[in-house]
Design goal:
The chain is of the alpha/beta class. It has helices spanning 2-20, 27-30, 44-59, 73-86, 102-110, 135-153, 169-182, 200-212, 225-237, 253-261, 272-287; strands at residues 33-38, 63-68, 90-93, 115-118, 129-132, 158-164, 188-195, 219-222, 245-249, 264-269, 295-297, 301-303. Strand 9 (245-249), helix 10 (253-261) and strand 10 form a beta-alpha-beta unit.
Length: 316
């Protein structure tokens, strides 16, 4: 009885949170409503994904509700369960805990509600499709760029620090692909890997400790937007713009300023807006009785000083 009451209270609390966010809707609306269960609303990446989904939903005459989990994986599971009870037409999720989300995914599938995974790659299961980049391959792409840059512009050697997010399955894949690729050059050594926990302030502190603890550091690889912004701030705070080159994922206006300043060298830029669009399109197809590809890849591009101008307008 106690477990039931606790779960009921948690569901009530979540429903209250949804209501305060304006995300509850009538049963009549549910028949044409999709839900997007998001990681947080702080990162520009997620807000661009939301925008793409919102525009695609509006264009196709669907309602879209977005749940902000504030980096809490339990909240994501609870949100999916609530949306199942409300009878939404389809669910999209960018999972924080790719394994922990699976029971909720299975509940949705049992209720005949199609689920599209965005960005974070889920293990094999009943989800209808996976939309996003291949994060392992993306890590290899930016890793190959780094290897070439070290050979051409750093005398063949680099002392590297990595700012990751060890609580993020996506960013762990990006780290793995990068580390596997840089092994091709024995002149690249890894000083340390620090955990920014997908939080900008935490990443900044971790990156500052990385820099102060390794005076010979010449490069930093950041696996996501909070890690990157934290790394850039740390390099600036330590006055190391001339000595340390930054590589990473996901452009921001700050990253573009760093490219202009010469200390941010290369970014792997995803297209989160396109991810949101493609996820909604997939749900539209599925709810119309059509089939979709199990994996829907959205390309990523290496952005450097040579091609950054074409991205500036996105961040003004």
């Amino acid at each position: 009885m106690m477990a039931f009451n606790t779960r009921k209270l948690r569901a009530v609390a979540l429903a209250t949170g949804l209501l305060s966010a304006g995300s509850l809707f009538s049963l009549a609306q549910a028949a044409s409503t999709y839900a997007l269960v998001q990681i947080n609303q702080q990162a520009l990446f997620f807000n661009q994904m939301n925008k793409g989904a919102q525009e695609a939903a509006k264009a196709s005459g669907k309602n879209l509700v977005i749940f902000n989990a504030n980096d809490n994986p339990v909240s994501q599971n609870d949100a999916i369960e609530n949306y199942i009870q409300q009878g939404v037409k389809g669910i999209m999720v960018d999972a924080i805990d790719v394994n922990g989300i699976m029971p909720a995914i299975k509940e949705a599938a049992a209720a005949k509600i199609p689920v599209i995974a965005i960005d974070a790659v889920l293990p094999a299961g009943p989800q209808a499709a996976q939309v996003g980049v291949d994060n392992l391959e993306g890590g290899k792409i930016i890793g190959k760029y780094f290897v070439d840059y070290v050979a051409k512009d750093m005398g063949g050697k680099a002392r590297l620090g990595i700012v990751g997010a060890l609580n993020s399955a996506v960013q762990n894949q990006r780290q793995k692909g990068f580390e596997e690729t840089i092994k091709s050059n024995p002149g690249i050594t890894v000083a340390d890997v620090v955990d920014g926990q997908n939080v900008q302030d935490t990443a900044m502190t971790a990156a500052e400790n990385l820099i102060t603890g390794n005076s010979d550091l010449t490069a930093i690889y950041a696996t996501g937007e909070p890690a990157l912004l934290g790394a850039i701030a740390a390099v600036e705070n330590q006055g190391r713009q001339k000595e340390i080159k930054v590589f990473g994922w996901d452009l921001t206006s700050k990253a573009i300023s760093g490219i202009d300043g010469g200390y941010v060298t290369a970014m792997l830029q995803q297209d989160p807006k396109k991810m949101g669009e493609e996820a909604v399109k997939a749900l539209n197809a599925l709810t119309s009785g059509k089939t979709v590809a199990k994996t829907i890849l959205v390309p990523a591009t290496v952005v450097t000083k040579a091609n950054v101008d074409s991205y500036r307008a996105m961040f003004k």
